[in-house]
Amino acid sequence: MNPIKFKQIFTQYKILALLAAIALIWLFFSWKTDGGFTSARNLSNLMRQMAITGILACGMVFVIIAGEIDLSVGSLLGLLGGVAAVLDVSHHLPLPLIVLLVLACGLVLGIFNGYLVAYAGIPSFIVGLGGMLAYRGIVLGVTDGTTVAPVSPEMVYLGQGYLSPDLSIGLGVLLFVLAAVLTWRQRASLAHHGLPVPTALRDGVRLLAIGAVLYSVVRTLHSYEGIPLPVLLLLVLLAVFSYVATQTVFGRRIYAVGSNMEATRLSGVNVRAVKLWIFGLMGLMCALAGLINTARLAAGSPSAGTSGELDVIAACFIGGTSMRGGSGTVYGALIGALVMASLDNGMSMLDVDSYWQMIVKGAILTLAVWVDVVTRSARR
């Protein structure tokens, strides 16, 4: 096959290639662990691990699409998770108030980062690098460099609770119905605008594949405890951020800023405001991820989120978000987060040395950027 033609096909079916890669990763680790990797218990744990990176990826994908980067997300997660633990353990505040205060702190710090980038003119790389050091220092001060524990059972439930089996089945049915409705609306919209409509067979096969995946996931998790609450939160965020990206003016402006910032500015869009709120959303996602991480560990750790920014950025690049900005999807970033979580989980089960884990993840990040470069050249 012509190399250029191969690149074009790979570009068009990148998500399918990622799903195939996940299947191969799972098969390999399942083989090496005698089926332990694909057990219901481990897959439930894997989903909870993936939820932390996935929540951060929802915000990071917007940042990268807009042509920026945020290296402070790991440290900010650790800071906000530490604040949540201190408010819970030392001050005994009610959980709703803790959640509200932590989310507010995340929004304010995210907007502060955005102000430095959009209005002060400091490159986002430098703002993120400075934040990575400063926020890590603050969390060490907030926690006195020690683990803050134990957090209340109410907070622990946020990270370790499950949706009941019956509700898990209901959620699976709801998601399948939603996929069918969206498919029907897409077909109707294409027909209304006189655009080519995919064959009914193609859409039918796609819906059957979605149904099979949902059935397998729900059945597997149902056989253990049900769907973990962090995964439920991640599904909600996937729906919200996908809607914002594809169905709102703000979402279209994010892509426009990343594609050609100067042309977008000249067309009357307030580019600075767009970037400000993108970083504000990133701060909110750090707050959510920090809360879930503290709840999952039942403690606030001063080392929480260390190197988390690398996993999140890698997840976005693996999922097809371009390092040059202007293109990317939320669901692609979440698939990338699943790849990273699967590698972390599988290598930990095999007791792979930490330095090899770092080498593997670094190589995958480099490979993801290389794929972006070659597929971009193929589209020219």
Describe this structure in words.
- The chain has 380 residues and is an all-alpha fold.
- The protein has helices at 3-12, 14-32, 40-65, 73-89, 95-118, 124-143, 153-160, 165-192, 200-222, 229-247, 249-259, 261-266, 271-297, 308-318, 330-349, 354-379.
- The protein folds into two domains: 27-161 and 234-379, ABC transporter involved in vitamin B12 uptake, BtuC; 162-227.
- Helix 3 (40-65) packs across helix 11 (249-259), helix 4 (73-89) packs across helix 13 (271-297) and helix 14 (308-318) runs parallel beside helix 16 (354-379).
- The mean pLDDT is 87.
How would the blueprint of this fold be written?
Elements: H1 3-12, H2 14-32, H3 40-65, H4 73-89, H5 95-118, H6 124-143, H7 153-160, H8 165-192, H9 200-222, H10 229-247, H11 249-259, H12 261-266, H13 271-297, H14 308-318, H15 330-349, H16 354-379
Helix pairs in contact: 1-16, 2-15, 3-10, 3-11, 3-13, 3-14, 3-15, 4-5, 4-6, 4-13, 5-6, 5-13, 7-13, 8-9, 10-11, 11-13, 14-15, 14-16
